[in-house]
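Appendix B, record 7
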Amino acid sequence: MVENQLTRVALHHGDRLFSAGLALETLGDLLGLGPSDPDLTSDEFTGLLHAVKAIGGFVYAAGSELYDVAKNEEAQDKKRGKKS
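Structure tokens (predicted):
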């Protein structure tokens, strides 16, 4: 169990952000195959594709960084003798 609440929350949310980023990037890749909905204009499709890819990239990076920082903090706590 992680003593530090920030570390616990960061690990929890970091994992979720990482997963959401992967999912959004996958959706973006699928949209990149071409428009399958005839109701979308080319501009709407392109806008949706860019939005999904941008959000996916940001969430993926944020989740990864947050998780890494939390793991480093946890390791430093262990070195200082705090139990997790």
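Remarks on this record: The chain is about 75% helix and 0% strand. Residues 7 and 73 are 7 Å apart (CA to CA).
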